[in-house]
Write a structure and sequence with these properties.
The complex is a heterodimer. Helices cover 75% and strands 3% of the residues of chain A. Chain A is mostly helical. The relative contact order of chain A is 0.20. Chain B is of the alpha/beta class. The radius of gyration of chain B is 24 Å and the shape is elongated. The chains are: A mainly alpha, B alpha/beta.
Chain lengths: 290, 389
């Protein structure tokens, strides 16, 4: 039986683990929900945008030795541009047609995984971490690399909030999410908003992939789990709801951390789905969905 | 006249050419050997080793003109299907090999759940298979057509645990981490028996999902039990590296032991040289030998490096299979070939003598018995601490 100080230490660890996971889930989920909210496309290739960014880090920072932080920005922007190109070339015909868009997204996902498999092989690749070691806070040890990822993710989320809140483009996107027709009447041009949304969603997924590349290993199918988490977070928070994605990410990250630490990871996965089921039964549109 | 001669030659020469090609083809046929294993995803380092071992053996035989069986010569062709370590895909791959490709000899699968799923297929269709998998349920007294191509924890865990007890007596408590599937359940239960026998106190027995990469929560729980040793039996190599790194970052200063599949380069890659230092591991091969390095050079011709040590087992296993087909004088009668396969040992493998055994543990002599090595990671490389023949 754990003593009170040990319980307190355990609680701190659970919260830190949960919040660092939450921040990455939120990065993924925001991009995913933004694309759905504006274009009504369930982008099942979102995990592959995460994967592409990770492989860019592997090639540029890992193999060519470029500065890691510059590569993170470059990877995110590259993936964003790729996302915008995908929208223009492949997804534009399916805007508003959810089933068709979903199928196209699945096809893109499988194609990108296969391409990564052919280029890089099936094995796991590792990238040297830019930051290593731990910070000791009393008896609690926090890995520096996780802390760095958490702080950078928080900064990116802050920038995203400012963009959506205070820029014309952000305002236009929020208007389209709420009501595309009314937004259009007020002069918002969808043909500019769609690639911008897809590109911005790609940038967020790109940041998540590039930041997590040194933390875990990199392989062609690595996008599947983050995609699944993003999907759960978005359903939990409400499809198309940006504040919902943030809340959903925090709920999922903390719930997983609690149950994985106190019981095991299998129960944690089960509980995360159970929470989604319960919330959807009570509120079918999700926590903050409309 | 000249024109007529030209026309006659224009018709006859290609015709003669076709007849000649047909005659050659009639003498050289194709013997297809199937591979169904994890060629992608977690565990693929071992699956690719199975595939590579078979391909190298095929390449060598073909370079010498083919496999002579009876009065025919066969070009050996390897047909490989990826089961991604999943039972359903393994059944699909095996079914395709048997029904569509009409193959009678198979290497794989790797995973225990996959193996149990295809076992009835192999036995009912008389498919002679050199299998992987660590589960004890793979072989029993009724197994006829399946032969396990590498040693399992039944063969190597006991000696390594005994070595650990003798050489590091101060370490008394152990936490086990395994995959939450058939492979992991079997491995954990089996290793637990050896640990109990040597008097270790097992303070934690965790089962993790194959897709998991963030081990902070599970390690937080494990480290609260204060183990001296963390043992990562059935966990894939790169994932082991992540566990090691994350555990060290959470403050674990104890001993890591790997009693599962080998993969030092992937472990070091994921953990980092500093954190992987001192890991005691089951080693499938002495990677410093010329024979191993020659095999690595051959592997690079068939698959992308690096080569996992498991390739040694399946290269030897493939050569034994081809030798058995040759000795049996048939590529169709798997009963004759398996009788010949059982007579092939003692076989000169690239690391020493190998033979069939396992009657005491499994009820049949279908388990390969090979030299086993205990390794340790020093400065990012595997060094051999001991060898057991």
């Amino acid at each position: 039986m754990l003593e009170r100080p040990e319980l307190f230490e355990l609680a701190i660890k659970i919260v830190i683990n949960g919040l660092t996971s939450s921040l990455v889930y939120i990065l993924m989920a925001l991009g995913f929900t933004l694309i759905f909210g504006i274009m009504r496309i369930v982008n099942f290739a979102h995990g592959e945008l995460y994967m592409i960014a990770a492989f860019l880090v592997y090639v540029l920072a890992g193999s060519l030795g470029w500065n890691y932080y510059l590569v993170v920005i470059l990877a995110a922007v590259t993936v964003g541009l790729f996302g915008a190109a995908l929208e223009r070339v492949l997804f534009r015909p399916f805007i508003g047609r959810e089933l068709n868009g979903m199928i196209m997204a699945l096809a893109v996902s499988i194609t990108l995984q296969a391409a990564a498999f052919i280029l890089f092989g099936p094995e796991d690749h590792s990238v040297e971490r830019p930051v290593s070691g731990v910070i000791q806070m009393g008896t609690v040890m926090v890995p520096r690399d996780r802390l760095a990822v958490g702080l950078i993710a928080l900064f990116i989320l802050g920038l995203f909030y400012l963009f959506m809140r205070y820029t014309k483009a952000g305002l236009a996107m929020r208007a389209v999410v709420q009501d595309e027709e009314i937004a259009s009447i007020h002069g918002v041009r969808p043909r500019i908003i769609y690639p911008l949304a897809f590109g911005l969603g790609g940038v967020l997924a790109g940041f998540a992939g590039a930041l997590m590349a040194p933390i875990y290993t990199i392989y062609p199918y690595m996008g599947a789990q983050p995609m699944l988490k993003a999907f759960i977070v978005v359903i939990l928070g409400g499809l198309g709801s940006i504040p919902g994605a943030v809340l959903g990410g925090v709920v999922l990250g903390l719930a997983e951390s609690v149950f994985a630490t106190l019981i095991n990871s299998t129960v944690a996965t089960m509980v995360s789905f159970a929470i989604v089921v319960v919330i959807l039964l009570i509120k079918p549109t999700g926590l903050l969905g409309r | 006249m000249k024109m007529l001669l030209k026309r006659i030659l224009a018709v006859m020469l290609p015709t003669l050419g076709l007849v000649w090609a047909g005659a050659v083809a009639a003498q050289t046929e194709t013997l297809k050997i199937g591979v169904v294993t994890a060629l992608s995803g977690p565990g693929s380092e071992w699956g690719l080793a199975m595939d590579g071992g078979m391909k190298i053996a095929a390449m060598e035989v073909n370079a010498k003109g083919g496999l002579k069986v009876g009065n025919k010569t066969y070009k050996v062709e390897v047909v490989s299907y990826d089961d991604q370590y999943k039972a359903a895909l393994s059944v699909t791959g095996a079914t395709r090999l048997i029904e569509q490709d009409k193959i009678k000899f198979v290497i794989g699968p790797l995973g225990s759940a996959a193996l149990l799923a295809v076992k009835p297929l192999y036995e009912q269709n008389k498919i002679l298979a050199i299998i992987g998998s660590y589960t004890n349920k793979a072989l029993d007294k009724d197994t006829k057509y399946m032969y396990r191509g590498y040693p399992t924890q039944t063969e190597f865990a006991g000696p390594i645990v005994a070595w650990l007890k003798k050489n590091k007596p101060a370490l008394k408590t152990i936490a086990q981490i395994d995959m939450n599937d058939e492979s992991g359940w079997g491995a954990q239960k089996l290793v637990k028996e050896f640990l109990d026998k040597e008097g270790y106190q097992i303070v934690s027995g965790e089962l993790i999902e194959r897709s998991l990469k963030d081990f902070q929560p599970v390690l937080t729980r494990i480290l609260a039990t204060k183990p001296d040793i963390i043992e990562t039996g059935s966990v894939p190599a790169a994932t082991q590296g992540l566990i090691i790194r994350q555990a060290r970052e959470l403050g674990f200063k104890g001993q890591f032991v790997n009693l599962g599949g080998p993969g030092v380069p992937l472990i070091v890659g994921a953990a980092g040289k500093e954190f992987a230092e001192g890991l005691i591991t089951y080693a499938a091969a002495d990677t410093s030998t010329k024979a191993f390095k020659d095999l690595e050079a051959q592997y690079a011709k068939v698959l992308k490096p690096p080569m996992n040590e498991f390739a040694v087992y399946f290269y030897d296993g493939a050569r034994m299979l081809l030798a058995a087909i040759q000795a049996a004088g048939t590529v169709d009668d798997t009963d004759k070939v398996r009788a010949a396969l059982e007579k092939v040992p003692p076989f000169k493998g690239i690391q020493g003598t190998i033979r069939w055994g396992g009657m005491k543990d499994y009820g049949s002599n279908h388990q390969i018995l090979t030299p086993i090595f205990i390794g340790v990671i020093k400065n990012g490389e595997q060094a051999i601490l001991g060898r057991m023949d």
